[in-house]
Amino acid sequence: MDSVFWSDGIAQLHPYVPGEQPKIANLVKLNTNENPFGPSPKVMAAIAQAAQSGLQLYPDPQSSQLLDALAQYHEVHESQVFVGNGSDEVLAHAFRAFFVKQKPLLIPDISYSFYTVYGALFGIECQKVALDDGLRVNIDDYLAIDPSSVAGVVIANPNAPTGVALPLFELERVLQHFSQTVVLIDEAYVDFGADSARALLNQYPNLLVVQTLSKSRSLAGLRIGFALGSATLIDGLVRVKDSFNSYPLDKVAQAAAIAAFEDEAYFQECRAAVMAQRDVVTAALQARGFEVLPSATNFVFACHPQHQGKELLAALRERAVLVRQFEKPRIADFLRITIGTAEQNQALLTALDGILA
Ligand code: PMP
């Protein structure tokens, strides 16, 4: 469908289609990498308090208290922190601020699909670098590219939907090679077993680290993401943000995020529980004949040698278990399965036993 009312180029856009958010209850929902354990009780109390204190006034447009809290937590200056409405919005601002340059942006060929959506939206050509045979990001392939020929680099670490993480020294090679362009490391899942590139911030002014509270902090419903980088990069993001949405975070989200970073004990307990369940699910899938990629995330990416991904997806859905499958070359037979509670994971395995029998 096209419309005479639309701006040029709108008809060519193919928006990102998120995983299903089902309208019916009682489904075992392991399809969009949410955290099954919910936010800390202290976060729930902060949300109630923020709402009770009145919502008639606009929130702090700068989210200053939250910036302070994030700066303290991540041991950077507050001029090095940026917050947005989910890391999706932070990514959008970063694409707009750093990569609109008449040169292609390097991304892995199999990665978070929003990158190409934003590329199309902002007129950025995305040059895809193939994952290697083990579905890993191969840094040597990036280093073979002339750094002056690209607008920047985006790498999700751990990558999605594969779940595979790179060690920091590999990211450093990219940061050094592409020193004159922004290297954005999307760390949506970093808290589940990978090393954060935030440790490299002081050495690399071209590094932008993007994180979210949707996964390890269980706050996908509130939409809070943030970026850490040099003050120059953050200044670029603020210019785009203020031109677009000068109130990115509402009052409730700001209060919740501050409380989330205050409750370190809950955070540690929660991520440990997810990682322990990931080990259980990985072993159980392997015992059922699946190949499971090594995951540093709150999901596993697995394929069965005798069954098509599409077939398993449908059969699980019939048994009220939702997982994700991508109709893309090389990964169509993989299922991306979010780690749930012990009960949810058991329901997945029981359903698979029925299907594989
Ligand atoms: N990056 C990656 C790699 C993701 O998988 C997701 C979640 N779908 C996001 C960013 C966005 O997360 P959010 O907008 O909830 O912060």
From TrEMBL:
This enzyme's EC code(s): 2.6.1.9
Cofactor: pyridoxal 5'-phosphate
Broad EC category: transferase
Keyword rRNA-binding in record: no
Record keywords, A-Z: Amino-acid biosynthesis, Aminotransferase, Histidine biosynthesis, Pyridoxal phosphate, Transferase
Pfam families, alphabetized: Aminotran_1_2
Entry-linked InterPro entries: Aminotrans_II_pyridoxalP_BS (IPR001917), Aminotransferase_I/II_large (IPR004839), HisP_aminotrans (IPR005861), HistidinolP_aminotransfase (IPR050106), PyrdxlP-dep_Trfase (IPR015424), PyrdxlP-dep_Trfase_major (IPR015421), PyrdxlP-dep_Trfase_small (IPR015422)
Keyword Cell inner membrane: no
Family to which this protein belongs: Belongs to the class-II pyridoxal-phosphate-dependent aminotransferase family. Histidinol-phosphate aminotransferase subfamily.
Oligomer status and interactors: Homodimer.
Protein's UniProt name: Histidinol-phosphate aminotransferase
Source organism: Vitreoscilla stercoraria
